[in-house]
Amino acid sequence: MANIREIAKRAGIGIATVSRYFNDSGYVSEESREKIRKAVEELDYTPNALARAIFKKNTKIIGLMIPNITNPFFNQMVSEMEKLFRKQNYTIILCNTDDDKEKEQFHIETLRSYRVAGIVAMRTMTPESYRNIDIPVIAFENQISPEHITVASDNYKGGMAAFKHLYDGGCRKILHIQGPEVFIATTERLRGFIEASKKKKDALVDVVKLETDFHIKSLEPAIENIKNITDYDGIFVFNDISAAVVMKHLHDLGVRIPEQTQIIGFDNSFLGELLLPSLTTIDQPIKQLGKITTDLMIRLINGEEIDQKEYYLKTTVIKRSSTLGKIATSKE
Amino acid sequence: MANIREIAKRAGIGIATVSRYFNDSGYVSEESREKIRKAVEELDYTPNALARAIFKKNTKIIGLMIPNITNPFFNQMVSEMEKLFRKQNYTIILCNTDDDKEKEQFHIETLRSYRVAGIVAMRTMTPESYRNIDIPVIAFENQISPEHITVASDNYKGGMAAFKHLYDGGCRKILHIQGPEVFIATTERLRGFIEASKKKKDALVDVVKLETDFHIKSLEPAIENIKNITDYDGIFVFNDISAAVVMKHLHDLGVRIPEQTQIIGFDNSFLGELLLPSLTTIDQPIKQLGKITTDLMIRLINGEEIDQKEYYLKTTVIKRSSTLGKIATSKE
């Protein structure tokens, strides 16, 4: 790889001028600029992004904190954001937190030490760690503080829509299988579900809480342990993978879906289409979530003040074969 | 964060000298070097990985090229490698190539400009782009050159094992649904399948090629277009997601699995366990693949010469309900 000395030699101008050019630190004539550009091209010189970052006080790197890269919802979000950030010439550093506070704190220090331009903190387990750092941060799902921007699906209305869809399909004894309480998204889904159920006096509702979100090996025993699961005519499961495990368990118990029990999931993962019967679910608008997060981050990096701090995007019921109700949207 | 001007002021020396120091572009006395190092340290509140990287000419960043982050096989590989690299204090820059040559070349330039310590090129579409760069590179699946290390599952023997498992389960008219030809992994699976079938004169085999690997929306019409798919008593599909789409299609056509048609996939994705019937598949040893790739990379970064260039890891048949054969391993 060529260095600055070779570029200066090839361009036929002084090292100091080339240095000013790369550092953007003083006058360089247009004629010299042209010569440098030509030399850079001829020598196949890759500008040193690190050195530039030090001079200009910022890198073109965005740090993405992801709870788990193998979780389809989050990896689809990352895939969206990666494409959009790339269009703005930003590169992604991806940090797997495993919903572990210490791992997340380690990653925050790493990202700070690399002087990233911004951080998207997805489902943070340690909001306090982001409060005093001088880098733009956007929270996805779990909030950081009222001063920080939060982006999420409207999980509350999604929970309401799930209840209504089952109720409209004729269910009157409905179970909600809730995800881990530390995830705001799952407690909001529960809250919406309960709120919607209060308006229907003829419906009985129960709630069971799981402590794992999508590791199949932990989900299976937890779901097999749910008492009287065959008593319900409708089950709203907090995510699609857990819903798939519930369907498998009911199938093993000889329960027919949707005739005896109707099932609705959450996320609209690719998985739902492949199941038998295919899974009705609540769609989170991944493309829009990715777009709004990316746009807001670029604006923050550019120093813009943004007054609106909370962005909750609309979810939609995706009707498939695991329920009997008609299509409804969370708007209804 | 401090800039070059503040560093010069604090160090009590000229900007040009500091610039020469950072650019490695001319004489800087040891005394000045020491002053600059001290100033950089004093002005930073977090250890500056970028500055350190420039001093030491290397970063603690590994670039991972991934064909698609939403593909379960590859995101599980990345998750494994991320954990192992983190133990060695390396951070990951993740680059989604979408199997697109131009995107991949863009990422290579970005990684070079950030002076990453090493690159893992998963399923590269542009091996020639890695040949002349002065950074350690390991190829995963698609080879870069005979001089570069390649890590992969033994897809050839995996293809043989898939044929044998169907044959041993009684199948005599067997279809292989092959993945895109540009992926070495899928052509190796085909080669193994054909080779194993040659030894069994009473078995008829056919091959159909798909041009997409796991985007369900493209897989569905492609699979629906396969002629006479109900004529086969055994189908070996090149990956689990495509196998799931095949199963769904056969189910819609009223074909009973495994009684009428047995199905075997490849990858051992979490998906297989959730299907009805659960999917027999060929396991790729993701943990070992991740471990060996990480270990080799650390050794290359440390300047070690490694004589063995090819690492093909053993696959295993995971017997579930979509086939009738007994458990076999690729060793047999």
TrEMBL record, chains A, B:
<dbReference type="InterPro" id="IPR028082">
    <property type="entry name" value="Peripla_BP_I"/>
</dbReference>
<keyword id="KW-0678">Repressor</keyword>
<dbReference type="Pfam" id="PF13377">
    <property type="entry name" value="Peripla_BP_3"/>
</dbReference>
<dbReference type="InterPro" id="IPR010982">
    <property type="entry name" value="Lambda_DNA-bd_dom_sf"/>
</dbReference>
<keyword id="KW-0805">Transcription regulation</keyword>
<dbReference type="GO" id="GO:0000976">
    <property type="term" value="F:transcription cis-regulatory region binding"/>
</dbReference>
<keyword id="KW-0238">DNA-binding</keyword>
<keyword id="KW-0804">Transcription</keyword>
<dbReference type="InterPro" id="IPR046335">
    <property type="entry name" value="LacI/GalR-like_sensor"/>
</dbReference>
<feature type="domain" description="HTH lacI-type">
    <location>
        <begin position="2"/>
        <end position="56"/>
    </location>
</feature>
<protein>
    <submittedName>
        <fullName>Transcriptional regulator, LacI family</fullName>
    </submittedName>
</protein>
<dbReference type="Pfam" id="PF00356">
    <property type="entry name" value="LacI"/>
</dbReference>
<dbReference type="InterPro" id="IPR000843">
    <property type="entry name" value="HTH_LacI"/>
</dbReference>
<dbReference type="GO" id="GO:0003700">
    <property type="term" value="F:DNA-binding transcription factor activity"/>
</dbReference>
